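Q: Two folds, back to back.
A: First:
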Amino acid sequence: MNSEVAEQSQHINPPYGNEATTTTTFTEELRATTEDESPIDSGTTPKWWQSLIPRLFSRAGFNPFTAALTGLFLITSLSLSTWLIAQHFKHKAELARLAAQQAQEPRLVDTDGPVTPETLEARIEEAQKQLTDVQTQLTEQNADRVLSNQELLGIQNDTLQKEMDEIAKPQLDAPIIDLDPAKIAPSADATKETLIPVTVPPTAALFTVILHKPVDKSYPNYLVEVLDPKKPKPLWSGTKTPTPDPMNITMTLVRRNYPSGKYRIRLSGVDGKKKDVLETFNLEVKYLPPPKAAKKKR
């Protein structure tokens, strides 16, 4: 009976040397299988150890599908790791940007201590007081400006009223200048234009000039212009419709608009869009000041 128990025990628990025997048997079978295959060429026939690796991969279940799956897994893992690293650095850059933005923003800081509602109320009252002071200063400046403008307007009105009164009064010895080309002596210097002097006494505030239409030329209309010799644009211009011969054009110039100085009077004939300059006269106007009052002797 003991012998039966021993045999059963050997069947149930085989000795440890069986594993080594199994491995040796597999290797020998693999080598025998390789040697049994008929070689085509000794140069191209693989060695037994060269065909061992594919057989081991086949025994382990490693085929092209599992290789592709493993590669896809590795690529996905690498991409995910790269994305996580990029998000990490992006998060750090965003934190740095927010910190810099917060550092630039003005903060309500009280040097004496923490900001309280009472402190804010006091600051608001101070700001309102400063605003009221500024508004008061602006109001005062505007009032002063209005007063200055009113004073200036008053002075201008007084001056204009005096000039109007002078014109409204009878003008004694107001000069009348006859601008007849036949009576005006030419300039001694041929390179210079003839300058006609006009002297206005202190008893007059204006003078009058008389222009003559040329005898040999006739136009539907005549244009009279008063110019400053230094400026091309006329100071004044007016149109005159011709009258039966002889036709004269009388023009009065007031001191307020034409003070002492040089002026040019130009007479032109107008026929539609055509304009012909007929005569040009250069005047030198001078208003004499009133005589000074004699000092009374004591």
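A: Second:
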Amino acid sequence: MIKQYNDLFRLAPRHSFYADGKARDLVLAPAPATLRLMERYDLRWGQDENGYVLVYGRESSNPPRLSWLGEPLALRFFLRSKHPYFLNITDVPFYQPGKQILYFDNLRAAAAAQPFALSSSAITGGADLLPVYPSGFEFEPSGGNILSLRDARNRVLAAAAEVESAAAGAEQTNAAPDTFMPPERHEPVWAPLPNTAVQGRFRINLSGLPPGKYGLETAPDQVSWFFFGGQEIRPADLGVADVYIGTASASMVPPPLAAGGLAAPPRQFQIAFEARTTRWRYFLINRNRLAFDQIEVNDGKTALGFQAMESRPLPGGTETAIPLLSDAAFPLRERPEWRYKLKLSKNNGNGAASGIPVTLDLPSPDWRRITPEGRGAEQQVYSDMYIYL
């Protein structure tokens, strides 16, 4: 009996911080439940120079095990980084791994796009930034009530009427065919907190549910999404990628055919991050008391957009510095793409420089040291560099 392995889908991490665009420091590790599914369906997860690939086994006399698939199958991969400064170099909000997580899936990707982007929200990288919750937590809905609990496919797992019936001890019934309740539940998914000073605050109980993305519907078309981590999420987990195999939507990976015909070409996915951009801020510290009143940053030929700010004391208060701030923000790079010079000169009173101008090579930013200032939409991130004259 001859067995061969065929590609089912490929997943390529990309990052513009690297010169070749390949995010070689990013690791995609299968979750424990995914490893068990891979064993059941004869799947293998591997890596080559272009990223990761999932292959399925096919024997000459038997159909692939995945061809028996009925309900869509979700394979989960944890996104980790070998780069210790991933959050510095990546254009994502500053967040706390373990308490928040970047979530990717292929449920919302445009069906016509190749390669598919995992997810399609506004956050760079195509991910949702979700809070990570334990099986039990407190929740205060903005609308004062909870209408339903939904899964990542937006299916209703529990509705308000069912929860009220469960709380009263009545038998649960599912009125809609797309409504699902976890098996053998004996207590409601949510209940108002008793004797609380905050009205409209609920205790959420997710025991019995598998880890994954869930949402609490608080008003029509208003869902607060979160990730129930169970025991799976570790501080090293920066993100989660759920890849769905099935035929329920065009963005899912189609399973291989049972027999005859041509299998669909392997689906190509990407997780693409952009490098974080920072405004460059040089601090000129004039220890040798050089005489100058004209400051220019140039690329060796052309003056660039840097503005000299008012002198200000450095931390510690023993010295002052003149900040030079770039008008634009520059993306961080593994190998700096820009080399600039500083030109200092003194005006003789007639509009011309007196003496010989001082020209210095300026350093490029160190991506290990960035300075965020402000919050939310007002936040600016700076690369600070100190120049001693």
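Q: And?
A: The helical segments are 32-40, 86-89, 160-168.
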